[in-house]
Write a structure and sequence with these properties.
This is Formate dehydrogenase region TAT target. This protein has a domain of 35 residues. 72% of the residues lie in helices and 0% in strands. It contains 2 helices and no strands. The chain is elongated, with a radius of gyration of 24 Å. The termini are far apart.
Length: 61
């Protein structure tokens, strides 16, 4: 094994070692959050009112 290959393998190992715990924690929390949120019922959401129409008219670029 050459010196360059050793440095690359160590670098890759350290990248994985640093990101693996964070990824595992995100997966654990993400699954719980998805299960806790109920599905949106049909008909819920933005209603067409004068207030929303004014907002969309003024928000155009």
């Amino acid at each position: 094994m050459s010196k360059g290959e050793t440095g690359e393998s160590r670098r890759n190992f350290l990248k994985l070692a640093a990101t693996a715990p964070a990824a595992a924690g995100a997966m654990a929390l993400g699954g719980a959050a998805e299960a806790a949120q109920p599905a949106a019922a049909a008909g819920e959401g933005l209603r067409d009112t004068e207030h929303t129409r004014k907002y969309f008219e003024t928000a155009r670029f």
